[in-house]
Amino acid sequence: MDKHKFLELPKSPPVDQVGVGDRINRVQSRSIKKSTKMEGLEMVLSMIDLTTLEGQDTVNKVRQLCAKAKRLHEPYPDLPAVAAVCVYPSMVAVAKKELKNTGINVASVATAFPSGQTLLDIKLDDVRFAVDSGADEIDMVISRGKFLQGEYNYVFDEIAAVKEACNKARLKVILETGEIGNLDSIRKASDIAIYAGADFIKTSTGKIGKAATLPVTCVMLEAIRDYYFKTGTQVGMKPAGGISNAKLALQYLVLVKETLGDAWLDKQWFRFGASSLANDVLKQIAKQKSGSYQSGDYFSID
Amino acid sequence: MGRLKVLKTYKLYIGGAFPRTESGRYYQPKAEDEKPMANMCLASRKDFRNSVVAARKAVAGWSGRTAYNRSQILYRIAEMLENNRAHFEEELILQGSSKEEATAEVDASIDRWVYYAGWCDKYTQIFGSVNPVASSHFNFSTLEAMGVVAGICPEDHALLGPTSILAPIIASGNTAIVVASKSRPLSSISLAEVLNNSDVPGGVINILTGDAQELLPHIGAHMDVNAVWYLGNDAAAWKQLQVDAAGNLKRISDINSDKGLMDAGWETPYVLKAFTEVKTTWHPIEVIGASGSGY
Amino acid sequence: MAKDNKKGIFEYSAAPESTGHISIKEQYDLFINNQWVKPQQGKYFDSINPSNENKLASVARANDKDVDKAVKAARKAFPTWAKLPAKERGKYLYRIARIIQEKSREFAVIESMDGGKPIRESRDVDIPLAAAHFFYLGGWADKLEYAFPGQNVEPLGVAGQIIPWNFPLLMAAWKLAPALACGNTVVLKPAETTSLTALKLAEVIQEAELPEGVVNIVTGEGDTGAALVNHPDVNKIAFTGSTDVGKLIQRSIAGTGKKATLELGGKAANIIFEDAAINQAVEGIINGIYFNQGHVCCAGSRLFVQESVVDEVILKLKQRMGNLVLGDPLDKNTDIGAINSKGQLQTIKKYLEIGKKDGLEMFQPKLTIPKKGFWCAPTLFTGAAQSHQIVQEEIFGPVLAVQTFRTIEEVIQKANNTPYGLSAGVWTDKGSKIFNLTSKMRAGVVWANTYNKFDPTSPFGGYKESGYGREGGVHGLEAYLKLS
């Protein structure tokens, strides 16, 4: 958090929702074909945080997920691997062992995911446990209740404290955009998270109805861009939840490319939090290679 | 020998003041008995230019008044006219009206001010609209004043002529310059005296006497005039005005020139509308909370 | 924009719209009385694709005798058309609207080939809006008495309509739909560089079984338009085009009793305050000036930026301009298509030279300009002032001049400091400031926190030298009716 410490949190600019919608219409009208489509589909695969975050998660379930992460589709061994596997803290050690020497990171949610409704000390313990268990990345949730009460300093300080507890792990800050209101609030929460030291900002837990959307992501990317213009420091972005098909994922890439530029088109700076996206992308890749539309029976489910 | 009557001096009305024409020229309109009624100013193009300067200066303030306030001022004009009706009747008779005609014209003039006083805060409700565009925008059209409008009075009806031109023009927030009837100019200047006592800000109404045909080419070609209302009956002059007006595309209208000023159908809000512009404004409407669509 | 920006990641491959399933005839005659009629002198001119200079079709050149023939057809058709039950008249318009929708893809492709505009715009804006205009006005045909309380309404007679090349089919719809709904008959003259979609519309009119003579289309250049304007049996002239020609038209019809509406040039101010939603404003500025290569009379070509945010706004504008794709109008990813004609390209280039000569700083993103065809990269001039020629004159191209301002008073004065008054834009998050600014702009259309939006229900037209009369909405009907 050192580099952020001396920057005063600026007043967030207003956001016009209809204007954002107009922008998204332009993004969605981009036609992604041929080699660009192939390139994009492979890029999407490389950016996926393959995720299981269920009360019913078991050791074996996590192992199976890791198996999928390592070999997405047997017939195409040259495809890139996913970026990370995302699990609860209790499963970090399991995933870490399964993914040893694969280059695939282990991400862990923490800070009383998904509600965040507990004390700061407990949240910090949660983070430290995940990091000590080997997590490369921590996905924290902000205190939406505090945010909605207007306690922005609390939210800021909490993120800064979690960042410190992360040590070398990269911190993704989940805003849970579906709970914090309109695009103006989302912009404000993005700024708080970025200035408090987030390495990534992330839309959603995936645990409520409203998950990632293109307009929400657009606003968060604008916050990242404004910060970059001001400081020259890159911050990553992770839309999560609701992105289950390849076409939509490619539109996210267009949005990233046109808002932030090619430097962000890398798993270092952009991720998809998704569980079923990978197979749809694989189907599209198979379609591109074979020319035939595909059936789910030919793509492994884990 | 009886008392010698003090005669009235008729001057121009420009910018809330009563100057003589800068040209120093005058003319003598004749009464029925061929006697000169008065020495009237024969306004020059420079008087017109000065009027435009005064009228332009007054646009922002007058159009910025509330409609209610403009309405009250127009009504005040009617009150003042009523108060001075004896003088106006006398002057109309001097200019050739019968007693009955004079009474009827003063009645009609007072009532016309009242009529347009009433429209000040209503015409945008009749002629404006909220437009249901097929996108997430609030869109409305309303009428705005054009700015500086010049009017050429018809030769008949010395009082009702300038009244009928001025009332609808200024009701919407325009400022006005009228050229009085050449043969019957007295009432226009008497009207100016009423206006000057009626809370009408200086420059909102300017009245020139003289020869409209002489002034018309300068009116048509003036680049700072937004519109001209022609109620004369000279086809060649009307055509020339259309040619001259192309210079700055000032709006020109002969609305109601086919109707008598005393006709029952003269009074409509459409003459007011003819000297307004339609402005349409767009603004986005946020869409949040629509059924299940999220953002 | 970022450090270690590797070139060529995820660059968009070509995605051209197919030109299959469209039909363009080799030669188009004049459309009179629902028939294709050879021009009296037998002369034709080429309509070319401005993106590759290939010939698309030969188009008839009408002279005054051809125009007379068309006006006579319209005159003959007028009494029956005007007396047709209004409901039935409206139903013809609905039919036309539906057929345009059914053939929208074909219309869009031809529009982009003939005029050079990106297929995204012809597909998403021009053609759907053209259909929507017929649909909207179809509904007015039997309700006109409600539009003008206390008035009797009658059609004017024969309307002569002259339309520009920037929105060929859409402008034809803006002109034809209200004229027909109000019971007039029409002689329409398309712009010489973009006649094809109007001629395709003639086929729609045949298909809709509109009575013969109700709509006649005469193609040609300026002299054809002049013959229409000066024809003694035309009751109404509707013109969209340059202010110079508009003035010429007003002078030529003076004293004839012909009614006119003129939709002319513009040099719109687009004003951005420091409290605006700047990221959306930047998008709005881009859409305001680079939409349709800036061939838009209401283009926001004078940008006023509050000094406190000028660096941020210009940085973001330049970044956004770098994402604009210039090229094949039929490519679905194209943002900037071809300039409509060689002549227009020369005009734009002349202004670029003037801007540079006047010492303004010019920015264009790095783009590959195709070898054939007419192209101009999106252009930004900074350091502009009201005194500069590129700020005063309508360029009608993708050229934005940026000025800074300090106070509201200053920017209101400067925004209105132009003979034009078609449109204006205002960007601020503060409601009371919006209403102050929108009411002070001397312009017929004011976009607040948006720009370049159009709708059949929304009146369009200018103040001052941007012309008079309105098109669209209830206010657009008045242009085609006699009230009494």
Summarize the entry for a quick read.
With 295 residues, chain B is of the alpha/beta class.
Count of separate structural domains of chain A: 1
Name of the CATH superfamily of chain B = Aldehyde Dehydrogenase, Chain A, domain 1
Principal-axis shape of chain A equals globular
Helical proportion of chain B?
A: 40-55%
For the record, the CATH architecture of chain B stands as 3-Layer(aba) Sandwich
For the largest sheet of chain A, list the strands in their spatial order: 7-6-5-4-3-2-1-8
Mean pLDDT of chain B: 95
Pick out the low-confidence regions of chain B: none
Describe the protein in words:
The complex is a heterotrimer of chains A (302), B (295) and C (484). With 302 residues, chain A is α/β, with parallel strands linked by helices. Chain A contains 11 helices and 8 strands. Chain A has an 8-stranded parallel beta sheet. The mean pLDDT of chain B is 95. The N and C termini of chain B lie far apart (94 Å). Chain B has a single domain, classed as Aldehyde Dehydrogenase, Chain A, domain 1, CATH 3.40.605.10. In chain B, helix 2 (67-83) packs antiparallel against helix 4 (99-119) and helix 8 packs parallel to helix 9. The longest helix of chain B has 21 residues, at 99-119. Chain C has 484 residues and is an alpha/beta fold. Chain C folds into 2 domains: 2-264 and 466-483, Aldehyde Dehydrogenase, Chain A, domain 1, CATH 3.40.605.10; 269-455, Aldehyde Dehydrogenase, Chain A, domain 2 (3-Layer(aba) Sandwich). In chain C, helix 9 (278-290) links the parallel strand 12 and strand 13. The longest helix of chain C is centred in the first third of the chain and has 22 residues, at 119-140. Chain C is globular. Chain A binds chain C through residues 13-16, 18-20, 22-23, 26, 29-37, 39-40, 43, 222, 228-229, 232, 234, 253, 257-258, 260-265, and chain C through 1-7, 9-15, 120, 124, 275-281, 283-284, 287, 312, 315, 319-320, 323, 331-333, 429, 449-450.
